[in-house]
Amino acid sequence: METIVSAPAYERVTRWRDFERTAHGVRFRAQTDANTPVEISLEFVLPEVVRLRMRPGRLQAEGSDPAGAHLLVPEKWEPIPFMLSEEPDRIHLANHFLRLDVARDPWAIQVLDGAGKPVCREGSERTPHPPVDGEEMSKLTDLGFLRDAESGQVTVHEAFELAYDEDLYGLGEQFDRINRVGRRFELWATDACGISRRATYKNVPFLWSSRGYGLFVNTTFRVTFDLGTVSLLTYSFTHEGPELDAFLIYGPEPVAILRRYCDLTGYAPVPPRWSFGLWMSRCGYQNRDQVEQVVDGLRQHDIPCDVIHLDPWWMGEPTNWCSLQWDEERFPNPSQMIEHLRERGLRLCLWENPYVAEEAPIFEEGRARGYFVQNEDGEPYVIQAWSEVVPPVAVVDFTNPEAVAWWQSLHRPLLEQGVAVFKTDFGEAAPEDGVYHNGMSGRQVHNLYPLLYNRAVFEVTEEVTGRGLVWSRSGWADSQRTPTCWGGDPFTDFPYMANQLRAALSLGLSGVPFYSHDIGGFFGRPDPELYVRRAQFGLFSPHSRCHGTTPREPW
Questions:
Q1: Is the dihedral of CA 62, 65, 66, 72 positive or negative?
Q2: How would you class 1 by CB atoms within 10 Å of its CB: exposed for 0-12, middle for 13-18, buried for 19 or more?
Q3: By C-alpha distance, which of 402, 324, 328, 394 is closest to 359?
Q4: C-alpha–C-alpha distance, residues 170 and 24, integer Å
């Protein structure tokens, strides 16, 4: 007999029953159209920032989310003075900058500025009959949630009105046009294998509107934004997880929105001065002789350069990746090599990724001590992070403080030897079904993983050298705290250069000020015109690196 599995039922918040005043705002006891009790809070966490939380049942206690220890949004806030007034059908919260009007039945939130001008309003569209896809429009455009009857898994949803002339910007490193309206984005860290698809390395669940406000969704779960696609009159976001946690950020100027977003998530420290010079690289220099030939060429051609980068072959064959140990047959006497580079005004950057090949010399130590993400049998979760040419690898578990300390201990001798910075490549492959030390699900860790990885390397670099720096590929909200990053692996063609420019602007509009990309492009051999144009683009970017699968030295 065939088993019929029913789709999860969508429940939308329809009304609030009562409320109580809190130190920062109001907590509502509300209900859905299925009479499910829901708690909702609206709080002023900064004078121009409102936090909206919603959860079936009761809201989670502050500090009880295992992800909270890793994210930089504060758990505690200074009280913001506000006034509260009540009418039969609604309440009003107001400070000097913002006013919130919350209707009782049907539930609805409107945000106005201090002068009473509308800033944003929850989206709610009605349709007199189901559209052709069989869904009621209201179920796609109201505050609410889906609950899977079998697993109990909750997916939360919220929507806001979209004006006919409104533009939306942000969402991290996106490779298409800057105005996001009219498209759907799924934010999930991915090895994009290029820069021509919706998949991207550095998603940020933050966008801002030409109407003078921003929206930050405080989660590490997969987030889907429908920006005028389901309805032309609303945009919405959905993510797995039992609780919605979002921040509405009033500007109204774009620079003020970005500044207040960074007030929530942290500011980017200024990288070392030398990092703003030219970086010379290739995928990759195979031995010390090649490095010295490149350095000689730079000086012979009178090309200023501050950093030489070595891709994986500094560790030898792929079976040694990522042991963080020199292959001294390829690179004999690395301490002397680093000293000679410094005498010529050059610093050294080394490649890494957060995966360890099963044949690598450090694998057994990591396995025995539980430093890798595990499978259900308690063994290292092994993935194929590269092509079949590179052996399978285990994934370092950065939710384990001891694994973080171990990984940092592998960097410390290299930094003390004189290595200046590490290229923290990859980081997008944390398995969804892996078992993590801190008990978080893989679905919650996956987008968080780039933060934990880059932070571990950034902090040990700062400890030893006095200044933190990485050259990272993957990211999420808060990534601006660990500069810098580059834009992945484009082909050597003008359309890819255009996509790279869009990504650079997009990431900057998402609160990440320091960014770079491969001068010349990555895959292939650039023709002279493309190389010149990409050099112009690259040298006027915050950081500048020549890099690709073929030589990128400009001679």
A1: negative
A2: exposed
A3: 394
A4: 28
Which residues 6+ apart lie within 8 Å of 143 measured at CB?
12, 13, 40, 54, 107, 122, 157, 158, 159, 244
Q: What is the CATH number of domain 273-354+399-485?
A: 3.20.20.80
Q: Is 527 a catalytic residue?
A: no
pLDDT in tens, 178-218: 999 999 999 999 998 888 888 999 999 999 999 999 999 99
Question: Distance between the two ends of the chain, CA-based, in angstroms?
Answer: 72
| pLDDT per position as a tens digit, 289-335 | 999 999 999 999 999 999 999 999 999 999 999 999 999 999 999 99
Could you say which of 142, 245, 489, 518 is catalytic?
489
Question: Are 318 and 389 a contacting pair, CB within 8 Å?
Answer: yes
pTM over 0.90: yes
Structure-block tokens of residue 325 = 């140990």
* Rg, the chain, Cα only: 25
Q: Is 48 a catalytic residue?
A: no
Domain-wise residue ranges, the chain:
9-166+210-265, 273-354+399-485
- DSSP-assigned beta bridge partners for residue 238: 157, 224
- Given the residues 428, 462, 463, 527, select the one marked as catalytic: 428
Per annotation, catalytic residue among 173, 425, 478, 518: 425
CB 511 within 8 A of CB 204: yes
CA-wise closest residue to 58 among 7, 85, 20? 20
Beta strands in 188-231 (DSSP E): 203-209, 213-217, 223-227
Is 489 annotated as catalytic? Answer: yes
The tokens for 428 are 């997008």
Architecture of the CATH domain 9-166+210-265: Sandwich (2.60)
- Report whether 372 contacts 358 (CB < 8 A): no
